[in-house]
Amino acid sequence: MVNGLVQPDVAKMEVGGNFERSAEDGTNDLRLRKVLQMDEDTDVQRAGGSLSQSAIKQLKRQKLLDRIQSKRLDFLRQVDSQLGELFDEVTQEVDTFQQPFTNGNANVQRDSNSRGQKTFVPRDSILTDLFEMQHIQTIYHIFVAILIVLMINTFVYDIVDKGSWMVDFSMVSFAFDRMPIVLHTWVYMQLATIVVYCAFNHWAHNRNTYGTWFDWLYCAGYLGYQAGFGFLPLRQICYHSLPPTAALIVVCEQVRMVMKVHSFVRENAPKVLKTKGVDGPKQYVMCPDFSKYLYFLFAPTLVYRDEYPRTPSIRWNYVVSNFGQVVGCLVYANFVLVRFMIPVFRNIGKEPTSPKVLVLAIFGSMLPGMLVLFLVFFGVLHSWLNAFAEMLRFADRQFYKDWWNSTSFAGYYRSWNVVVHDWLYYYIYKDIMLLLGYHNKTYAALSVFVLSAIVHEYIIAFALGFFYPVLLCMFGGIGVVLFFLVPQQPSRMWNIGLWVGLFIGMGLLMCLYCQEWYARINCPRVYDSYADYLIPRSWTCMMQNVH
């Protein structure tokens, strides 16, 4: 039984047997039989008279079993997707019914349980299930073959052009330089998150003794902690001039820990506040054990729970396989950038630039940009998170949904990164509606977009070492408009439009950021102050070298 559905016993289905069917699916079964019969007749004609009667029957039987197995997997996948969407819709409807009816000026006090809770259930990632199908495995093999061809292409190019027999991994070594500093910074950040637990535990056990001022004192301390935690890692990045990948690791871990700490405090503070005024031997404090908090810090989720569904054992071969895929994605990205991006942009500032060159560079960056997007998705959201989920026996592995089937950017935003989307939905979107009223969904959605766009640009800016708000404008500007553009009747054309938009967007991002990166290498500084960090140098460089 899979997802509550009984699987058909394929072994008991005999060729030529009468399948039981209802009046609704009779026509579909008849069509299926006709298709199977045509395929069987074709196979028999190809085989000719050289096959015996038993061999022909065996061929027919195998053909039928293969077709039934394929149809069964397709059916189960479709039903599982529809049930998941139905479950999400029902959960949201239940949350809506639980909301109290109030007038416009009434203060609404809601119990934490009425906020709607994310339900964790044991389930595999979509690609994990899809890879069980031979057709999807073939697509995976195609991407591996492309990687091999890129390696051979780069190897031959280095031999012919540079006379070197060694593949150039200088960009990888540069990107991951100064990793000991990254490790030290990460350890300090991790210890700082443990301090939060100690402070929260002390507040939870002593708040009833000291009164309200004690609550406000710890609230101010928590805000001060968040501000300090946002400053110190950035100081390490700027002081040591960390390269892009090293800086990206520090900033992403900083954002991840801030989100995890906020989730822990947001989920447990209301429980502690409920204990106010409780006296006698039944008094208790809702502060989780440290082991639960420590597990949450490493679990592949940003929503805190005291307990998560767990798998019975750890498959270490699966862990090694996923980490191997992460390394493969890094190597893949290296070859994509070395062969398709760096040769186009490394002479920015050295040669005259024209609008024609810029347009060609944008369209030439679309395909490499989408490959990088695929690699980020597969390497981080699938392989990396599944590896940690397996090591921690974390059973709910819906880190993403089938975003590639989306017919609107709203659906794409919700399904691309479920881990971050859940945090934004439960701690930003729903809390803003709690403060402003549940009729202000538009303001809550816009607030989520603005915050997400700022955080994305924040990560890119400190990872690359300059502020060039391309992603901020695309995400917080065009992305907001596309979010509200939802088709009334989704169709194949809307999905094609989504993919066209992704190709164009990734082409713009890759082109403009690469252009600015090499402009800062090849072009002289124009400003000696912080203005040089904020003003794109590629603009001044292009004006000086315009053709």
TrEMBL record:
Membrane-topology annotation of the record: Multi-pass membrane protein
Organism expressing this protein natively: Branchiostoma floridae (Florida lancelet)
One cellular-component annotation, GO: endoplasmic reticulum membrane
Name of the protein in its database record: Sterol O-acyltransferase 1-like isoform X2
Molecular functions (GO terms): O-acyltransferase activity
Family: Belongs to the membrane-bound acyltransferase family. Sterol o-acyltransferase subfamily.
Subcellular location(s) per record: Endoplasmic reticulum membrane
Domain of life: Eukaryota
Alphabetical UniProt keywords: Acyltransferase, Endoplasmic reticulum, Membrane, Transferase, Transmembrane, Transmembrane helix
InterPro entries: MBOAT_fam (IPR004299), Oat_ACAT_DAG_ARE (IPR014371)
